[in-house]
């Protein structure tokens, strides 16, 4: 199979199960003969901008985490630093799966400012990451949809099982997660940046069917 270089982004709330979906979808695609690359954002431990994000979310760097635009800029710079890596993955693989991408910035920034998907900060994110940074544009988004309550419960269990994944300031803000879920739904309905496929993160995902659709 010759590489088609499809860039597929998995989005959803913290605790939605994005990593589990990425692992399962990778295995299913590889069983079908596809070459699969992957990358997760933020790139903690690999990017200075991502590490600054993590430190700020755990109350480092003074009031940095309070700045919506400041945090969004750090997230964007992390992705800008990975642009060449994404392009290389696209050149070598049939499908490249990203755990979070530009839409995460749009959803969380809008939610923090209590704006909708057509608000100023979402337009700013597009102008910064798509227009100015010229990041590779995705071919599809997969929105793993669960209720904020389910996502929060999963995030708590994950943190209890893995001390390295303690909940940060965003993950522990239930009201923020509620608003973020609403913005994600709006982005999906609008087909923001690329087509969106909404998946049921509670009932489960039909991985064979999903894998085939991504290769067709």
From TrEMBL:
Domain Thymidylate kinase-like: 10-189
GO molecular-function terms, A-Z: ATP binding; dTMP kinase activity
The enzyme's E.C. designation: 2.7.4.9
Transmembrane residue ranges: none
Keywords recorded for this protein, A-Z: ATP-binding, Kinase, Nucleotide biosynthesis, Nucleotide-binding, Transferase
Catalytic activity: dTMP + ATP = dTDP + ADP
Nucleotide-binding found in the keyword field: yes
UniProt key word Glycoprotein: no
Pfam name, any one: Thymidylate_kin
Family: Belongs to the thymidylate kinase family.
NCBIfam families found in the cross-reference section: PRK07933.1
Record-given protein name: Thymidylate kinase
Organism whose genome encodes this protein: Amycolatopsis carbonis
Gene, per the UniProt record: tmk
